[in-house]
Amino acid sequence: MRALLLAAGLGTRLRPLTDTTPKCLVPIKGQPLLDIWLERLTQAGIGPFLINTHYLAGQVEAFVEASHYRNQVKLVKEHELEGTAGTLIDNLDFFQGEDGLLIHADNYCLADFKAFQQAHTNRPPECLMTMMTFRTNDPSLCGIVDLDDRGVVKGFHEKVSRPPGNLANGAVYILSAKLLNILGKDLNAVADFSNEVLNHFVGQIYSYETSEVFLDVGTPENYVKANS
Description:
The protein is of the alpha/beta class. It has a single domain (2-227), classed as Spore Coat Polysaccharide Biosynthesis Protein SpsA, Chain A, CATH 3.90.550. It is 28% helix and 27% strand.
């Protein structure tokens, strides 16, 4: 299964660390975050990969060229950020008409990706994607998900002051070929996946909850947690 890793962000919340290092390459226990993603996805039989770049793109290009995964990675440089959905829509051909992964690669994620793929395979027939979820200690800072008794998403609460739970959207998705086709035909002008795409598919999104480590390392506090 092919995977698009979104890695072009500015990482402003992690300054001054990201003044000189792109967020996707910040080290977690000495290993660049992007290298952790590529290693774990490859171990799960996932690949090849498309990675978008923008901020400090030269460093990402040099990392990929020197990595074990260079023959499995295609880079696409964005001179202006296209947005999470914009990048996906611009590169739909990469998936070659098959299901594929969309990953916000600024998370530190130790999930079982084989189990995630199996959950997608076994999803209810009406579901067009499978979303990875996790339990958070800071629900007001996350997109919180409401599920029915089958694990299908019935609503979202995006960074509200009193969310009705702590099950958060991990922004890691397996998208069916049918959904990708819909994006290309009917939603091809949208820019943001979380705010402009997900709500169109409420009732058609299956969920997979990981019990493994899952942290948004975009804040200094979570970056410290990841390294501890």
